Amino acid sequence: MLDARQLEALAAVVDHGGFGPAAKALSITLSAVSLRIRSLEETLGQRLLVRGKHVHATPAGQALLTHVRQVQLMEADLMADLPGSGGGVGGGSGRRKPAPMQSMAVAVNADSLATWFLSGVMPVMQKHRTVLDIVVDDQDHTHDALKSGEVSGCVTTLAEPMRGCLSEPLGIMRYRCVAAPEQVAQWKGPRSAEVTPHRLLAHPAIIFNRKDALQDAFLLQHFGLRGARYPRHFVPATEAFEAAIELGLGWGMVSDLQLAARAHRPPLAEVLPGRTVDVALYWQHWSREPPTAQRLTRAVKDAARQQLLPAVCP
User: Fold this and answer.
1) Would you say 25 and 33 are in contact if contact means Cβ atoms under 8 Å apart?
2) pLDDT per residue over 9-21, tens digit each?
3) Which domains are seen in the chain, by residue range?
């Protein structure tokens, strides 16, 4: 039988990034945290944490963290249903206590977060008094947070389900290469019907962050260009990213959902009309979910079905 206090210490060290912050969060001494982790590692006969400047879990530690997150959610669901413990009648007043709010950690890419995700899950979050702890990452990397046990679900481009998880298709986010209209007109020149790759790559791309590969996917898909070199602005904030394109700083990849929401903002023009990049998104989550996680999974799938393009069947 695993010791609950030791597992709690493991989760705290990973969540807070070190033994000292974990001790503070748990209101115990640093030596007590170290002892609990060491005892857990001795019981299991393997290292669970990689010590150093940035403490992180080993593969065995990641597996335990996933177990801890599941147990925490199941306990919260149970407590909400117990009479007198949030979901039941409190004291002798006959009045029902409000259910304690439950927290769920998920990983979502910035474009989904800015368009369909939050509005889609908000009703179920409010109805069941659930708060979200959202990890934002590129859609090609959000599954790392699920693999590490940091979150219970993620919006990802990874179709193959990870161990202990299910991967469910959500739909397609379609992206277009856009720029400020005056920039597009200038890049075409007086004698050209469209912007050539040479002219496009002479100007900076606006890129969300160094993990963002959409512009490279666009160049490879439509021009066969792999590893092209071109100037880049990195703007890791959704509104600022679009503002940089509006201001004429360069070209960038923007989803149809974001373009449709720009009614009251300066227009953006498609650099090469019709040449799109489709990104297939999936919801990866634990195969054995407690009720709170099940509700979130249903909400995510329903929201995606309403907002995204249908997934293409192989």
Assistant:
1) no
2) 998 898 888 999 9
3) 1-57 (1.10.10.10), 173-277 (3.40.190.10)
